[in-house]
Each structure stands twice: as C-alpha cells, then as structure tokens.
Amino acid sequence: MQLLDGKKTAKAILNTIKIDVAQRAATGKKVPHLAAILVGTNGASQTYVNSKVKTCNDIGFISTLIEYEEDVSEMRLLDKIQELNEDISVDGILVQLPLPPHISEEKVIEAIAVSKDVDGFHPENMGKMIMSEDAFIPATPYGIMLLLEHNNIQTKGKHAVVLGRSHIVGRPISILLSNNSNPGNCTVTVCHSKTENLEEICKQADIIVAAIGRPEFLKAEMVKEGAVVIDVGITRLEDATKKSGYRLAGDVDFEHVAPKCAFITPVPGGVGPMTIAALMKNTYKSCVDRD
Amino acid sequence: MQLLDGKKTAKAILNTIKIDVAQRAATGKKVPHLAAILVGTNGASQTYVNSKVKTCNDIGFISTLIEYEEDVSEMRLLDKIQELNEDISVDGILVQLPLPPHISEEKVIEAIAVSKDVDGFHPENMGKMIMSEDAFIPATPYGIMLLLEHNNIQTKGKHAVVLGRSHIVGRPISILLSNNSNPGNCTVTVCHSKTENLEEICKQADIIVAAIGRPEFLKAEMVKEGAVVIDVGITRLEDATKKSGYRLAGDVDFEHVAPKCAFITPVPGGVGPMTIAALMKNTYKSCVDRD
Fold first, then answer.
1. Which CATH code is given to the segment(s) B28-113?
2. Which residues in chain B have Cβ-Cβ distances shorter than 8 Å to A201?
C-alpha cells in the first residue's frame, strides 16, 4: 500500500506556480489576483477561505478577502460580484459556499464572469468541461485528476466507481475520468443513495472515488485487493480525546481499507490540499489567459 | 418482448402539443416559431431538417428554413444567428450539424442565445442540465427520457449501461439517467472505445443505451434476459434489394437481441421520432417561457 500524498503533490505544484509567478513579476507582468468572498462566520468556511488566502500569499498571488455579515442582502453580494467582474486587476473570483438560505447560490454563481469563475461552478464552465472545451474545472475534481497525474496512476481502460453525484465533486469527476484524456479513459460507474448492490459494484472497481460525505462509509469488504481509493469526504467527528474536541474522518474506513489498496489518499492530507492547488492553477491560468 | 414504439409515443406527445398550440392561437397568443439553418446538401441532414419542418407544420408551429451553400462563410452564418437571436418572433434556433470543416461548430453553437437553444447544445444548457437546473435538454437524450416515461419503464435503482460518451447523446443521457428524478435514479456506467470487459459489463445491465454509431454492434450474448434496450444508432447500409439502395441499421443486432428483451426500440421508428418530439417540446417550452 502506498499513500497518495496530497500535501506533498500540492506542494510540488504550488512550487512550480510560485516560480512562474516570480518570473512574471521579474519581467514586469501582472501577478495573479484572487478575490474571495466569505459570508457569515461558519467555522469550516472560515478555515477554508483562510487557507486559500494564505496559499495565495505563499506563492506570490495578490488576494483580496471580502467578508460580509450573515444577513448581507443578495443584491449587495451581486453588486460586489459585478464590481469584481469589471475590475481588470482581478483574475479569479470565488464565493465560499454554502451561503445563508436567503441568498440564491444559483444566482450568485451565475453572476460571476465565466472567465473569472476559478471555482468552475458556473454552468457554462460545467458545460464546456462536458464538451472537452477549454474551461475552469471545479477545484476538487481537478485536484483529484492532478493527483492521479503526478503520481502516474494508470487510468486508461480501468473501471472507476464514483460514489456520489453532486455537481461539485461526483458528477464532474465521473465526466473527467471517462473523457478521452490522460488521466481519463476509464469506464465509469456513478453510484448514489438509490444504488442497489453497492458492495458488488464497488468490488469490481480498479479505482474508487468516495464523495458522499458519510464518515467511514467505504468498508474493507467493498474494496478489491489492489484498488486505488480516493477519499473526498471530510467530516468533523466529536472526539473528547482531542484538544480541538473533534477529529476529521473521510468517507473511507481507512484503517481497514488501506491494507488492501495499491494506493489510497489519507484524510486529512489527501484531496484537501489538492483542491487548493487546483484553485491556484485555475487562478494562474486565468491571469495568463488575460495577458 | 415488447416494442418501445417511438413513432406512436411521439405522435401522442405531438398531439398534445398540437392541441395546446391551437388553444394558444384561439386565445390570440403567439404560436411557437422554429428557425432551422441548413448548410450544404448532405442527404441525411436534408432529410432530418425537412422532417423537423414538416412536424412544425403538422402541429401548428411556424417554421423558417434558412439554407446556405456549402461554401457560406462562418461570419455570414454568425450574423444570421445574431439576427435570429434578436428577432422576437423566433422562439427556437437550430443549426443542423455537421457543418463544413471551414466553420467552427463550437463558435456557431455558442453564438445561439441560450434561451433559444432548443437543441440544447450550448455549454450553458449542458451545464444547467448537470446541475439539474431549468435547461433545454439535447433532443435525443430528452426523447429517450420521454420514451421511458410514457411507457412507464421503471428506472429507479436499476443499472443502466450507456455505450458512447458523445456530448450529443452518450454523456447527457448518462447524466439524466443518474439524476435524482423520475425517470432517473439509475446506477449508470459509461462505456466507450477504451472499455475493457465490455461484454461482462453489458450483461449486468437492466437498461442498455447503445449510442456508438456502429451498426449491429450489440449482440445477444451481451444482453441479460429481460433487459430494456434503447438503440440510438442509425446507419445507412448498402442493400441492393432495396429500392433506395440502402437499409437503416441501429447499433443493436435487433433480430437476435430482441427475443431476450423486456423492451426494445426498433430502428427506424424508435429513438428517431422521439428526437423530433423532444425538439418540438423544447420549442414549445421556449415559446411559453417568453409569454
């Protein structure tokens, strides 16, 4: 069993970007600028946004963090997005989800200029991804593809089983893995809450991507010897033995599944850091596209 | 074995639309108007466009057919699309594919207003389909979903295998069948030219959608007893015994597969008529959305 070390892979990717950014700066070119919007005081959202801003600073990007109270109006948020769309200094705009229930996530996402939608959640970017056109790929599935690529995981002709059909992870990763590309060219099965014989299907998989948000759902008896397992889940479970009061659990019963795997991602330190690296790659791409 | 009669189902759907259109006309409301653009003299393309125009006339839609020579410039085509986008009398615009190689299909499709893209090929409509938002669904996959719905085929929890990953049929039908909807909620496996063990995978399927354009590819030994088989292929094969000099073949070896099926679509008379019915439903929807 070999760990797919997302932390290490992300570091290598970010380091390459950092060098490219320094070269741009040295030749008087614009450096990438990410604008992040955070609404409210959700702990996990704050952690995610802070770590994105910190990564920007680490690799020489400019970042702008715009924070609103929980009760900000939808109109005010949409006005701010419009302003950022028109601001030529900004390359990427992200709005940390989830948003409070009085704000339409659909409206907010669709307000972001397609060419600055570095989270890749705008329907036009989603559609272009389906059609294998140039697009921003959502950060988590893009991060998984980068992780497979950088670790030379063979995917062509393999059977990949994706657990989950969310438009943020499950759906796009199922499309990317089955596209005519490398990594890609997998035979892909999408499973979800209505799937029957889930264990039987999972046991056929050469590659499993677990993205359902149910801690330790994937058990050893569901996994074939020698499989590659990618764990997208990250849930806080109460744990009195920890100083923080909680521990992080993935969708995979790591302790029992890992010994059967050829490769497996840890949680934390697997898909999480790759998501941030992918976001930075998208933002860098947006900046270069604007040259 | 029961035939999934696309001709009959399409007729029922079109008849409902016809009644609705007549009611609109009787109350002084606008009737749907489809504008179709045909470039060149490809025989199959002419047949398809003519049958769409004929259907419009049959059910009380207005239709405009715009024909160009094979050597029309991309610019002229784009100008015409812009004109149709701005023409408030037009509800739906379709450009018959394929286009000659000097014209970018991507550019042409993306020039069509999302709100008039009744073929559902614009990336924004594709993306909205992924995200289960209100969208125009591409006509062939939408027609398949209507065929399943009107014939009360149970899909929830079933294992559907889709052969083909084109963005016109394979990819969208795989998404629609696995969405949380009815029909839908299938476990879906997407297969393609790089798939290994294709026979073994097909044999597990409760529902097979064959959309690869290889005549009579799906053989009896690949199909489970009691399966539902949807044949999207339609290829002209030379046949000296026919007056036309050709016969139409689907992707399924119908003669040998049909006896094993619970339900199967014929070719012709299966998915083909449903595609036109779906296009008309999209155009009708566009007209009503504009009220």
1. 3.40.50.10860
2. 159, 187
For chain A, the structural domain boundaries read: 28-113, 139-272
Residue range B93-114: mean pLDDT, rounded: 97
Question: From the candidates B97, B108, B115, B126, which should be mutated to test the interface with A, based on the most A CB atoms within 10 A?
Answer: B126
Q: Rounded to whole angstroms, how far apart are CA atoms A226 and B53?
A: 56
Fold: same for A28-113 and A139-272: yes
- Tell me which of B117, B119, B251, B253 is the catalytic residue: B119
Active-site annotation holds for A119: yes
**What's the pLDDT at B99?**
97
What are A's interface residues with B at a Cβ cutoff of 8 A? Answer: 106, 122-128, 130-133, 135, 156-157, 159, 165, 167, 171-172, 174-175, 178-180, 185, 187-192, 194-197, 201
Residues in B closer than 8 angstroms to A131, CB to CB, are: 106, 123, 126, 167
Question: Are B70 and B40 in contact, with CB atoms under 8 Å apart?
Answer: yes
Nearest CA in chain A to B194: A157
CA atoms within 13 A on the CB side of A126: 26
Phi and psi at residue A68, in whole multiples of 5°? -125, 155
Q: Find the mean pLDDT for residues B137-149.
A: 98
Q: Tell me, what DSSP letter sits at residue B17?
A: H
If you measure CA to CA, which chain B residue comes closest to A167?
A: B131
A123-130 and B123-130 helices cross at what angle (nearest 10)?
Answer: 100
- Of B117, B98, B100, which Cα lies nearest the Cα of A124? B117
Residue closest to B205 by CA, chosen among B192, B193, B220, B187 = B187
What's the gap in Å between the CA of B169 and the closest CA on chain A?
Answer: 12
**Contact assessment for residue B63 and residue B89, using Cβ atoms and an 8 Å cutoff:** no
pTM: 0.96
Q: How confident is the prediction for chain A on average, in pLDDT? A: 97
Give this complex's ipTM: 0.95
Q: In this predicted structure, what is the pLDDT of residue A44?
A: 86
User: Can you list the residues of chain A whose pLDDT is less than 70?
Assistant: none
Give residues with Cβ within 8 angstroms of B206, minimum separation 6.
B158, B159, B160, B186, B224, B226, B227, B228
**What pLDDT shows up at residue A154?**
97
Q: Compute φ and ψ for B214, nearest 5 degrees.
A: -115, 110
* DSSP SS3 for A132: coil
A130/B167 Cβ within 8 A: yes
Q: Which CATH superfamily is domain B139-272 in?
A: NAD(P)-binding Rossmann-like Domain (3.40.50.720)
Q: How far is CA B190 from CA A201, A215, B36, B131, B147, in A?
A: 14, 27, 32, 19, 20
Per cent of chain A over pLDDT 70 is 100
Of A5, A91, A96, A253, which one is the catalytic site residue? A96
Distance to chain A for B196, nearest Cα, Å: 6
